[in-house]
Amino acid sequence: MGEILGRVMMVAGSQITVNPEADSVEEGSARIGAVVKVGNANHDVVATISAVRCENNSPSKRTLFADLLGEIVASDEGPSRFKRGVTQYPISGAPVVIATDADLTAIFGPVSRSNLRIGTLHHDARQPAFVLVNELLRKHFAVLGATGSGKSCAVSLLLSAILADYPMAHIILIDPHNEYGRAFGRTAEVVNIDNLQLPFWLFDFEEAVGILVRGGTAQEQEAQALILKDAIIRARRHYAGESPAAAMLSVDTPTPFRVSDLLRFISEAMGRLDKPDTSMPYLRPKTRLESLRDDRRFSFMFSDWLLGQDALSQIVGRLLRIPVSGKPLTIMDLSGVPSEIADVVVSLSCRLLFDFAVWSDRGRMPPVLLVCEEAHRYVPAAEHVGFAGAARAITRIAREGRKYGVSLALISQRPSELSVQALSQCGTIFALRLANELDQRFMETVMPDAARGTLATLSSLGTQEAIVCGEGVPLPMRIRFDDLPRTRRPRSDGADFAKAWQADSADADFRDEGVRRWRQQSRKRLAI
After folding, report:
1. 446 and 354, same structural domain?
2. How does pLDDT run across 120-136, given as a tens digit for each residue?
3. 145: helix, strand or coil
4. Is residue 508 part of a domain?
5. One domain, residues 357 and 466
6. Could you tell me if 222 and 182 lie in one domain?
7. Alpha-carbon distance 411 to 414, whole Å?
């Protein structure tokens, strides 16, 4: 038996009140987050200390509160094992003891090969912390933490651990700020503005409207959308020719068409007008389309190679890593994508993933993990913020993805601005430091009851520390993530002003190269 901490004074629902022995309190055993157990007839009940109350500043008059979490049950087949839930509650007067190393191993130790080490327990650095891979991925997860809390490094650590054990994984990482490109080396296929290929015909009607319909009143924009819809249908059917399937094509069918045909059909419809003064709904999308086609920043949508052939299979294969070909991770670097359509590109990428999973042979479709960094930008709590198509695509994955083997990871530094509908679907939550009061209050609504006692520590968590709860861990725990080698860390650190301003390191060549990249909208180095 472990060190006696005290005795049960009261049992109320999922919490017990403990009268500690003075010696144990003075020795520091009664720490917030410490794991204790209460002996019962055939098993031990496990709890974690969630609060300590002191009366009249006297150590001998302190009261401990502990949340009941589960039981350690003896097994005939081997060592004792931990299971969630309490079948038989402790009785008043029962001794409360500090969990031993063997107890912690039974609770937190790996129970199968499908476990990943991610760090160590806060209250006992000797004890490694594991996550259950299948439970983590089958039911989605979220990594939430303020800027500087170690959130990006935590994401890199989680993905690196997965890739180390599962080199045939299929993972897509949406990276808005070019943070993760260097963190995964040759295991990642980095897709950026220089090699991105998403032909315009691949966008569905809602996405095409989001790109082309600009200006005018709501009624005028609706008229533009109807004109665009008719022209896209005609362009798709014209490209398909006389095939029997041509008549079945809809505005959203992912089949090729030529932009020149789309422009021609808009012009033909405008030419049939009786009154020239009603041509504005035709001119706006036509002019916008011509402008984008001639803009180098949008060449990933309008290059001749993309518009001249049906490359859907190759695009899907590259995005989903089918086949893996030694690179199980696709990083979608959106930092160079024009901000006005970045959300639309996210919408398309998520929709391609889900639609392919829905229509593929479910017996052969490999599971895919979609990691959405800065998720509050794409699935915001406020419906009027951002592009509705992106929010709809990600929310659909959150709700229905597990049926088709599509897992979702939401990463955000502002959870209060994140859609509750999407976040509520995450079975495991990694909560790093959150200092904002709104974010802390929001976490109370999404964290499971068993973890509520640890929420008060969110603002005091150190860098690389997190509270982990949900399906992916045996029980809620406070951990410290393992260190990442410097070469495997994402580019998420702020500038080191004190060091950088010690020397004049930015010369004229650096300046000229920056101007060249800016003008060409490309990060490629100039060939020498």
Report:
1. yes
2. 988 788 889 999 999 99
3. coil
4. no
5. yes
6. no
7. 9
